[in-house]
Amino acid sequence: MTKKYQKLTFIYYIWILVFIIAPILLLLYQSFFDIYGNFTFDNYIAYFSNKNYIIMTLNSFLTAFLITSFTLLWAYPFSYFLTKSKHKDLILLLVILPTWINLVLKAYAFIGLFNKNGTIVGLLGLASQGFLFTNPAFILVASYVELPFMILPIFRSIDTIPREYIIASEDLGASKLQTFRKIILPLSMDGVIAGFQAVFIPSLSLFLITRIIGGNKIITLGTAVEQHYLVTQNWGMGSTIGLILIGIMFAVISLLNKKGEVNGK
């Protein structure tokens, strides 16, 4: 039976080849051509020598880090108390429900809340200057969109900690704070790292929310790729930035996986 199922894995490899490897190879091929279709290395030279692209890359990292940090700040305590709730399955369902709604619909819903006549702006007393098309609005909406992907792995990691560990810690005289710091927090780090990956990596390439909520005031690598493909029609430069973005993502994943292995030991 094992050999029989192993033969079916070729479907998995075909999927990887067609939808992952082939697109990356196409990006690599396209990155060596300029807007006129001439073979060149100028795209890579322009990226690493142009100050604007370097600033854009740093801004993408900063934006992704702020979104991830803000999301983690809300997700960890929520996940911790969720594991103690009697109705955690129902609450977890409510956490997952927003992911079923189209991203565009959620973004446009926030336009109604953040404009000068919006409910939230009125409560915050910002009706005169508005809250839409600002960096805080973008970070808040992006964090809201990514929040379930941070909550789920953290909740699962905390919920699977054996209850006996907590009881043993209390029997040995540890306070709740000591139990959390010495038992719960270290054992839940795998979930934190998984959540960090699930939020930080997509946040590097955000472009739709930057357009709708940020109002083109926030420029990231994702918006640069969109701009080159849809506006300037410079597919070579767009492919170059896309490849660099993929390389950055792989580097972040490798770094976090090594961190997780160290914590596991």
From TrEMBL:
It is found in: Cell membrane. The chain crosses the membrane at residues 12-33, 53-78, 90-111, 131-155, 191-214, 234-256. It is a multi-pass membrane protein. Residues 57-256 form the ABC transmembrane type-1 domain. InterPro entries: MetI-like (IPR000515), MetI-like_sf (IPR035906). This is ABC transporter, permease protein. It comes from Anaerococcus lactolyticus ATCC 51172. Keywords: Cell membrane, Membrane, Transmembrane, Transmembrane helix, Transport. The lineage of its organism: Bacteria, Bacillati, Bacillota, Tissierellia, Tissierellales. One of its GO terms (biological process) is transmembrane transport. Its main location: membrane. GO terms for cellular component: plasma membrane. Belongs to the binding-protein-dependent transport system permease family. CysTW subfamily.
